[in-house]
């Protein structure tokens, strides 16, 4: 089942679409969901420390996050702070 991201009104639709396209496997979607759910804006996350924490706390291949970011053309913090919602109500139409 393929769920999609929905852009918040503050998020350019083109960025959301690029990220949706980059999340082309269920593993990629699970990894991004875990990372975004764990990342908190009010904390001072260094990318290295955050990746180490995520790797320790999940069974997902954190190394694949680089591929997601490369395919979407987004930086780490940009992707984590992108105002998007996870549409968990049904299948994506794309």
From TrEMBL:
Superkingdom of origin: Bacteria
Designated name of the protein: Uncharacterized protein
Species whose genome carries this gene: Halopseudomonas litoralis
Lineage: Bacteria, Pseudomonadati, Pseudomonadota, Gammaproteobacteria, Pseudomonadales
